[in-house]
Amino acid sequence: MITRSTYALTLDRITIIPATKPTPHSPPTTTTTPRDWSQIYSIYGLDTSTLLLSISLLLLSLLLTLLSLLLLLQHHPIVFSLSCLLSMFLFMAALNLCYSAGPLRWEMGQRVVGTVREWGSVRKVLDVGCGGRGMLLNAVALRLKKEGGVGRVVGVGGRKGEVVEVLRTAGVEGVQDYVTCREGDVRRLPFSDDYFDVVVSGTFLHRVGKVFGHKTPAAASAERVRVLGEVVRVLKPGGVGVVWDRMHVPEYVRKLRELRMEDVRVSERVTAYLVGSHIVSFRKPKGYGGMVAAAAVASEGEVRLDWRSHNNSNNNVINIC
């Protein structure tokens, strides 16, 4: 479970430091009422890759179980024990994938939403990636609807088929009037500077590195940093950013501090999709207009921060009501 805490980043580890006092975007001690698993799966289902991988792991687990029984009959107790352990591991891995893509993603979405304490004054929200068929996007929209205000949330980053699914689930949740979703390159967000009150993202940034920076680890890191710089650029001074992601959290914390973000906080570790994940939250300082914020890759392994040159080249600007 995630408790209210922060982490101090060192070069070789992350050390936990209990929070001394709550901040405007610190994680809440309670969450909303848990939703029934069957309801989550009936609305959002499982994405194709997770479903196929889970089925494959379950089939391998079944085959190893049958092999273990044969080895036991042939009096190979050591190999039998090893086969049983491997079969159990594959079975638990399949369950973790299904759980992560459904109930855990829903719960983490609620925690991301709960990190922001000022929803009554929020008017514009961006979801970078809008993954999980819009689960986080809809969680934000449900909160905006509950507040009864005029807030809206836009999702960017999905492919055409994913966008259709996101809009479908928004209709099922009854928040279609609060949601907009479109395709787009998250490395060059089509929005003006200082536009959103809140920016969120759920297990998406690591995928950017895999897709666009797959040649080398340095290239993958540069692509992730580019997106993080875009998140900072479109966030209003005083606005809150919340990112839930896997594996690369220390990299995000370092970059956010280099970009001079305030109140950078990291949740405790939560196992998702077989690896560790964390929620990173931060606030963009007020009066941030003269600071650099968008990341542009100058060469492989090198990241140059240059906000103004990026803005001059970005003429495709989208506004939402």
Terminal-residue CA separation: 36 Å
Give the rounded overall mean pLDDT.
79
Number of strands: 12
Oligomeric state as shown: single chain
Please identify the structural class as seen in this structure.
alpha/beta
**Helical stretch count?**
9
- Tertiary shape: globular
Beta-strand residue fraction: 15-25%
Unreliable parts: 1-24, 26-31, 290-321
Main pleated-sheet profile: 8 strands, mixed
Order of helices and strands: EEHHHEHEHEEHHEHEEEEEH
The rounded Rg comes to 21 Å
What is the helix content?
A: 40-55%
Task: Describe the structure in your own words.
- The protein has 321 residues and is α/β, with parallel strands linked by helices.
- It is 45% helix and 21% strand.
- The chain has nine helices and twelve strands.
- The strands form three sheets. Strands 3, 4, 5, 6, 7, 8, 9 and 10 form an eight-stranded mixed β-sheet that branches. Strands 1-2 form a two-stranded antiparallel sheet.
- Helix 6 packs across helix 7.
- The protein is globular.
- The two termini are 36 Å apart.
- The N terminus and C terminus are likely disordered.
